[in-house]
Amino acid sequence: MYLLAFLGFGWKRVDKIAEKLNPKAKVSTQRLISYCNYALEEIANASDGGHTWIYINNPMDVKHSMAHLIRDNVPECQPVVKDYFETERQLTKDKGCGTKFYVDDEKIGLARYYNSEKSILYHLNRINNGDHLTPYRDFEESIQETDKWMSDRVGEEVHLTDEQKDAIKATLDNDVVILTAHAGAGKSTTIRGIIDLWEGKEIACCALAAKAAIRINELSGQGASTIHRLLEFSQGMFQRNENNPLTADLVIVDECSMINISLFLNLLKAIPNKSKLILVFDDAQLPAIGAGSVAKDLLGSTFCIKRLTKIHRQAAKSGIKIDANKVRKQIDVFAEDYDFAGELPKHIVHGEKNDMHYYNLRERLDIHAQALDIYRSLLSDLSKKVNPNEITIIVPMKSNMENCTDSFNQEIQEILLKDEKQFIINGKYSDRAGSPRIFKKGCRIIRRKNDYEKMVFNGEIGTLTEIAPDLSEFKVKFDDDREIIFKSKELASFDLAYALTVHSMQGSENRIIIFVMDSRHNILLDSTLFYTAITRAREENYIVFQPSAYKAALTNDKVCARQTFLPLLMNQSKGDE
User: Fold this and answer.
1) Less CB within 10 Å around the terminal CB: N or C of the chain?
2) Dmax over Cα atoms in the chain, in whole Å?
3) What's the mean pLDDT when you consider all of the chain?
4) Which residue has the higher pLDDT, 132 or 367?
């Protein structure tokens, strides 16, 4: 009966049915196994979790302590715990892992996560020890070309930093290179430099988010795709794998700190021995959604690691870059803005470029109104030539409060498409009024679920361009120019995309960002989320905030280190050398 829980029927539901059918199952090894599997999966995929193992007994953190979870949820199973755990512990000792769980004297985790992380390390070592490529081009010649590209782009003579050149050069002698960068340190131009060096070779660039892939393409001129498209996902599986690997000589993965264990492993499986692998990310951003922390774990590895910390001269003129790096270090960005009474003015502008704006307000409704006023003024300022698609409002939360994505999305759609008569209604918002979810022709929408048949993935954004006269279907033109027709009921898997949560924007950028935070967001606010919100803006960022929310965002550090198997495996590998 408990096998149903492994098939996705929900553990609590299956447990109730099992007890009715067989009361003796309440005290059984099968129930214990099923519960432990359920608990570990929940922890691995929780927004405040991501752990692939937890302590067996941790009284300081009972949410992540298996002994306490069993005591509080399946106390009847206590009589079978010792014998079962001892069996799995002995298998772990003898064979590296148990049948269902990895268990040692202190830790327990799912065997499948242990095996996946072990496989990740195996494939990284395989790639790093594979066939060694040499470029067609001279290193210095390629650096000069990248410098020229940078100079042409900004309109003045600029050069790669020594850190950037060192990172580019590292790809000559290493087949796995891990590149992490601070805001403004030139991550994107370093990617461009790597592409210039390996010109003539087959290069595959990819990212988890579609917008991040589009950004790579814009900056590098190199075709880029989502990971799912690169691996040719169809019919429920990746068509590119060990038996049908990619043909690329160089694989560059941007924003890879967003990738969870399962997708990371599938990507590595498809990379042949002949390829070089470049993993690029900003280690101060939000962690992956789902189990594991592969990219950040690898910063403790023996693979070639390059860090970009020097802020470019051009970036040093940007208040966005300067303030982002202060927030990264939890330094008050307003240190020089307080008056003698310790108060801040209502409007503060930072940076030589005047690109970082702050609006300090006391009331949540005033914050909401100010954000919409900024939105309207940006569109009406003819000197800026702003397209509505170039502005995104981002907030920490999705619904049920004044400053959430649902409320902003409804209002902005009305601002932009007030006179549009064609629309489809799909369900209701979760606000008190139960407002209808209206999607007007021309609105911006974001996909919320993967559709493997149509190859449309969670997070992809486009414009609703057509609605059938009988409302039976609608067409979306996505930002990569694909046009796809959907049945009207599929609108349940879309949201309006004028306002997004910070988590939804991770891996993406827009020309202008309006970031809203008030005291009701405090439960989510911390410096990592704040840093991520600031760095979503390419040209201008407007932060509208309550003072208490700013304090919480700057001083909190809620992103705890994830407990994963990869560091343990890497340390074990070092000891075996």
Assistant:
1) C
2) 78
3) 91
4) 367
